[in-house]
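hiii, so i know i said id send this last week but things got crazy w the move. better late than never?? heres the sequnce for the chain we talked about at the cafe, plus the structure i predicted for it. fair warning i was half asleep when i ran it
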Amino acid sequence: MDTPENYYAVLGVSADADSDTIKRAYRQLARRFHPDLAGPEAALQMKRINRAYAILSDEEKRHQYNIVLGGVVDMRQRGYTRPRPRAHARENPEDVEFSSFNIFCTKGPFHAGPSVTATHGVTSALNSVSTAHGILIAAGSLDGKGCIWQLVNGVLKKTIDFANDSEITLEAFRELRFSSAGSLLTGWNRLGLHVWDGFSGQRLWSTPLNERAVSAHYSLDASPHITADGQRVARLALPHLPEAVNDIPSPRAWGVRSTDVLSHNMSTPVAKFTNLRICQEEAVEDRNFWAIRMRALSQDASTLVTLSCAQIQGESQQMAVIRRWQLASKGLLGGTKGPHIATSILMGRCEDCTPPYAITPDASFIAFSYANNKVRLADTTNGTYSEVISGPVGSSSRMAISPDGQWLALAREDSEVNEGVIDLWSVVSGQVVQKFYHPWQVSALHFNEQQLITALTDGTIQVWQAS
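okay and structure toks below
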């Protein structure tokens, strides 16, 4: 019988390598021989790598393989014994790019910048803002804790810890958002919203969201800012809550069909809200289905964008509609016009429009998954949209769009080969212009001006800077 191919040598691991080592080796080799990097001539080697991983990653198949692999396992006993370690030399000692689990990228408009390490667990939310002294990066974790890093010229100068109010919720942070200068930070999940001082980490305000019809963290938004007279204010977009709940037959229907845009001043009582504006998309008496899935406020809180599902006349299935609301504007006679819809965009079947969502700070562009293998990008100002064929996009995918709407970053996380890989798309050309490779899964993404910030599941926060 011919000696079987040494799959351990194919993957470049020792015969007693554990499953994690085998998995990481496979990921590195898969990227090395990916067609985007190595071309079609690497297809044969990729098949060998896939075959080796299919055997060694399966406990039973590996056991049988070790039994028949003469000279690699101890055959003196009938039962399986642990394989003896064997030395393995790299095929190319100069190939240091793949000799360890490095972070690297293909040629393109961005290059690797500084990185920091989080100790609070897996990062579930990420945000950043430029300041007069550098940049602030905030990361929140699955256990409701977070950290703010201040970087000056790429050097870490200060680290600040913050946490949510455990009496309201222990649920993970799902979103974070700085004020324009970084002096305030908001964070929220489905059950509660919090505001901190961005320079000290002190929690200034928390409010529960139980009374609201909050279905997911993206069904609300918050924009903190400092007023001209120095007041610290959080502007919120929440599911509508009628004042007299008991008098409404179906209060939840109001919540999912309308939006309350309101403010809270940090110097006022906890439960006090002001400047209420109601954006009602459909009257509750209308029996056609209508529900707001996603809400997003612009940084200056002058614009609200919603993504709704509705039963539209002439359509057999529920359709997704994006609406851009102008919350206040000058009327023809110089007065102030209340909230009104500026543009509406029919985006396709509702069941095909799914998270993740990404939106620019001025709410001009919104991106989301469409039909599981595309990304649609809506221009809310002009009322148009485009799409790219991205490949599978699922619940574990992460997405970010640059503030100018020029770049779209997508971590699909749909397979071993794509784990830790970010595709950078040009929105104008609809083409991938660069790839970023990481040794761990991407848990969060964020664009800050000309910087792409990536959070990995091992705690690494990596900054990619525009060249």
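btw Helices lie at 7-11, 19-32, 35-38, 43-56, 59-68, 251-257. thought thatd interest u
miss u guys!!
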